[in-house]
Amino acid sequence: MAFQDGSSRSLSRVRQSVVANRGGDGAESGNGSSLIEFVVTLPLLFSLIFCFIEVCLALYTWETISECAREGTHFAIFHGASCPTAGSPTCEVTAAQVNAYVMGLGWPNAGGGTMTAVTTYPDGNEAVGSRVQVKVTYRFPITLPFVPKTSLTMSSVSEMYILQ
Question: Domain extents for the chain?
Answer without folding.
Answer: 37-161
